[in-house]
Amino acid sequence: MDLLESPALPIPAPPASPDASASYRQSSRERLSPHDLPHFQGATLFDRIARVVCEASCLPRKELYESWEVARRTRRRFRGGRVVDLACGHGLIAHMMILLDDTTATALAVDRRLPRSAGILAEAMVRGWPRLAGRITLAEQPVAGVAVDSGDTVVVLPCCQAEGKGDLGGVGGWVDGALAIDVTRAARLRAAGYAVYTQTIPAEITPKNRLLLGAPPPR
Questions:
Q1: Confidence of residue 14 (pLDDT cuts 50, 70, 90)
Q2: End-to-end CA distance of the chain
Q3: Would you say the C-alpha torsion 142, 146, 150, 156 has a positive or negative sign?
Q4: Would strands 153-156 and 210-215 be described as parallel, antiparallel, or unpaired?
Q5: Above 90 in pLDDT, residue 160?
Q6: In this prediction, what percent of the chain has a pLDDT beyond 90?
Q7: Where does the pLDDT of residue 21 fall: very low under 50, low under 70, confident under 90, or very high at 90 and above?
Q8: Dihedral sign of CA atoms 132, 137, 211, 56 in order
């Protein structure tokens, strides 16, 4: 995901994912359905989104929780600007980013191959929040072909690191390969003048839970 930064504004921290019980695994890849609605009866934005997703019956549970944790942490740090959600899956992060900050006018969600149900989810989100209509574009194309600007804010939740091809930054003998690649990414951003922030999302959602955020240097 790529977010073009505008000046940050103080905002209240969005609520954390509410249901972390061992009996209801956030990491499950089962599709959410109306059967899951009893788990999301609160009045928070997360609960409202979850209820819409359950009614759509197309999204893996893990993708709901993972998308929320990335979007809310990003919006705590960065406000406004364009959103480009790369390797977007169903594109839920793009929708959440606008719901969390309506000063973002539009969002682009791109994946090499979009799930067939991505459109179903997008329609459900617009029914739930009509103000989203026409503001999120889903595009099926190689992510490498998407134009980004050198001054864009960067937000990455790395996974599936290709250790045989990735740059381990010379520290592969100290730490595991995936971590070495992520540390090297952060170092490259810092060398380019970015302010780097590192966080994690809950490990019960995914073991690949390192979140890298980079704010570009002032122009």
A1: very low
A2: 21
A3: negative
A4: antiparallel
A5: no
A6: 68
A7: low
A8: positive
State whether residue 217 is helix, strand or coil.
coil
Q: Percent helix, strand and coil across the chain, each rounded to 5? A: 35, 15, 50
CA pair distance 135, 150, nearest whole angstrom: 24
Instruction: State the residue for tokens 């390192």.
Output: 210
How far CA 63 is from CA of 57, 190, 213, in Å, comes to: 13, 29, 20
Backbone angles phi, psi at 180, to 5 degrees: -60, -40
Domain 2-7+26-215: assigned CATH number = 3.40.50
Q: Reduced to 3 states, what is the DSSP secondary structure of residue 178?
A: helix
Instruction: State the Cα–Cα distance between residues 7 and 64, nearest whole angstrom.
Output: 28
CA distance 172 to 159: 17
Residue 148 identity (one-letter amino acid): V
In sequence order, which residues have a C-beta less than 8 Å from that of residue 115 and are 6 or more positions away? 58, 89, 90
Residue with tokens 């050198």: 150
Query: What is the sign of the dihedral through the CA atoms of 201, 205, 208 and 213?
Result: negative
Pairing between strand 210-215 and 107-111? unpaired
Say which amino acid occupies 75. R
Strands 2-3 and 107-111, bridge-based pairing: unpaired
Q: What type of residue is 40?
A: F
